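Q: How would the structure tokens look for this protein?
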Amino acid sequence: MSARFEEIDWRETPVGAISLRRRLDPTLKVDVYEVKLGDEYLMSSLFTVAEIELARLGLAELAGPDLDVVVGGLGLGYTARAVLEDPRVASLTVVEALPEVIGWHERELLPLAAELTGDPRTALVHGDFFAMTAGSGYDPGTPGRAYHAILLDVDHTPRHVLHPSHAPFYTPDGLRRLTRYLRPGGVFALWSNDPPDAEFTAVLGGVFATAEAHVVGFHNFLQDRESTNTVYVATV
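A: Here is the predicted structure in token form.
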């Protein structure tokens, strides 16, 4: 049986101290991996349903083979792994702002790491997703490269962002910049911790041809109740 608690890694970063921890859940009897930024919890392997649905709901809007996909935010790797489970995916580019998080996967400190780094379709790119959206795109070797799907899971919600520099992305102008990197019929999907935001859905609808907010329910083991996240899906 695993030790009850282990701090696997702790690093100072430009946005604060980030740590990767593993603990043995006494009720479920499973190892739980958690990431904290300062005192704030960013993610937990206990709650991955909506991260997985981000990939599934986004890719479900696409037809045809040989899909090129971008995931903004690597985290524990659940969205990226769900993308790779779709046999139509030809390439996956994962953009992660923190090299420490990429290092966790390259060092195989996380349960899904070997699946991601060992898949030849996967490229882990160190970069600021939001700055890259405003710049020349997500492939440093091919400026302007377009994709079939762009899936984003970085901020808590469009209103509760991790850094003020992210906020302009969620405006009509910011979202229009993103559409430059989507192929015709392409999909943008976004994870949010909050219930559907009618105002933000309307912003999406003003930029994209279609926009819908999906409520994703899951059991919250810590509070012993049902919880929900939101996945927004928009198509050009």
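The chain has seven helices and eleven strands.

The helical segments are 49-60, 78-84, 99-106, 113-117, 129-134, 172-179, 198-207.

Upvote if useful.
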